[in-house]
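Researcher: Excuse me, tokens okay?
***
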Amino acid sequence: MALSTNQTLMTNGLLRIYHDSMENALSCWLTEKTCPYGITIPSPALLKNSNPHESMSEEWGSNWSNRIFARVCRLDRASSVVRGRLLTQSEEKLASKALHLAIMSFATQWAQSSNRSTAKFSSFDSKDDEVIDDGAEPARGEGSSPLSTEFDRSIQESFWYQARRALQDSAEIESFRVIFAHIIFSLTQRPLNVAAHVRAIKGRRRRSSAKRFNDSAWPGASPPSSESTRSGHCSATACGASTYQTTPGVINTSNSGVAGLDEVTELEGPPIFLETALRQIFSYRCKLESIERQRTIAMKKCASPEMAENPNILSTKDRKTFDLLFWLAVMFDTLSAAMNKRPLVVSDEDSDIRDGNLPGQHISQDDIISNPSPTYRSMLAKEGDSKLWGDFLLRQKHLRFCHKIARWPCSYEDAASTLCDAAPIKVLLFRKVTHLQTLLSRRVMYEKLEQTILDALQVYQHWNDSYNQFILDCIANHDDLPPRIQSWYVVLAGHWHLAALLLADIIEVIDDGQLGLESQQNVRHSSRLVSKLREQNANVLSDLGRCSCPGYNLSFPQAREFHFAVSEGALLTEPWTVVLIRAFSKAGYILLNRISHPRPSWYERGEIPRESEIAQCQQRLSFCIRALWNLGKKSDMAFLAATALSTALKDVTDEIAGKAEEFQAITGSDGEGLAA
């Protein structure tokens, strides 16, 4: 009896964590209003007299439901007409088991009762050498037992392997519950052997004894170029962290911590479960539209009144649920492809809007009979503007809750609406990055690359014109925001700034390879486009880390709207942890590079960097490390990334101190005022 009660309590707690993270995020990312599939344009009179927040008012409140979970289960029950048969009893059990275990595995990522859950962050400074030498886990509390021996950890590992097995057993079942289970599990990070990876970082640091400065550099060395020192030359790595090449006179960032960071971000592995879900739901879409096409043809032959009223085989709500689930899959496909540098599973053509008419236009039966076959044409008249992944999402005001740009302070509804409206724009920038990646893989050069870069920069500018100031308002007033607004904007902004950093990386690859037009490359070089993209977005990410991490006397945990494992800070509500890991890791790497690659003017004057500027970059980097460490409460990869970055920072600061001593020995000066 007691065992059953404990299991029930644990299950309810894990369902609450899923609700407070996944469903909370989907309330912002996934709404019928902002979904481009199956949309309608209300009449002007209806727009004037309607409340634009009405459809999401309950989901945006303090007592939101498991909306997507419930709708997917309902859709699965109704989908037998698409499948052509009911699921067997054994298939029903396997589908339910797969979804249940995927949710349990997802939720067990958050520590609840272990040392990991109660540990407080302390900077990696005085104890850093001690920590690395001992092979312990930095800042997780002295005397903490290994993760593998803790109850939280054993439950996490058990559910992860059970969920993976359940998904493998149900892989051949045509079920929307199975598809949704794959999507949820794709966001769930595999438990890692943390101690082994920390030992690897420790061993690498001990072996890293090579000299890190060029002997001829200080002073009088020829200065490095502006662009290379301030943004760094990069070659793509698994995480897109950019491996910066060393420049004479510049501190070498190819140290043990940086190498460890590259390895850590490779630990995620290929997105197998997400790609499986994408193939399954795209297959469903093809089958569903084939059936609807056949019904349209039947209407032409017999003019059936029943079909004329409703040619769809699913109810309106279930059809909208399918559209939402397909849009969710396409969004995740877009982010995953951009981050992992993999091809899209669902191409632009296959994810495009398939109605040849404007959304919401009345289509008469005569129109359907005269043009029975839906086409892949866009919903807009001009071909150049017609694709979903062109400027459609930028132009279509009927896809937005708000028709004005919000600024804080504003109403809760306006804040929520602004963030919901911004979510598809974030996806669009990731999609532009995948377009550039695809063109490079196909060896397309010059004009096409330049046009795609321009398209991406237009999306970036649209965000800056529409949403950037609101995000900056949120950062400046973080603790005054309602808890869910804190959660939504932190996650959304973290994703957006990662997309901007990925864009900077790929533009640099194009320019370094001289794959674009020389005139445009020169413009980008003279304007320091790549450097500015990196610096601006890394700075904002460090600000996000500063304000969203757990701390004392914050409003977020006091609101009691979230499960205690999630409520320490807005950062911990992120359902797709690897996105923020990559974001803060990349920002941290850029800040580390700024510390170790001084400005060219310092070289020209034979000076060392100003201490205040180094200190500012170190502080910003510490915010990124702190954010990663706190994400480490639910992610081994995040904790290891924090460890690797802190190790790299320790190496670089040691080198800077050594170089300052060397400079003083050469010049006989204490270095004061040299960088004035």
Residues 636-667 form the longest helix (32 residues). The chain has three domains: 79-120+130-192, 264-269+390-667, 278-384.
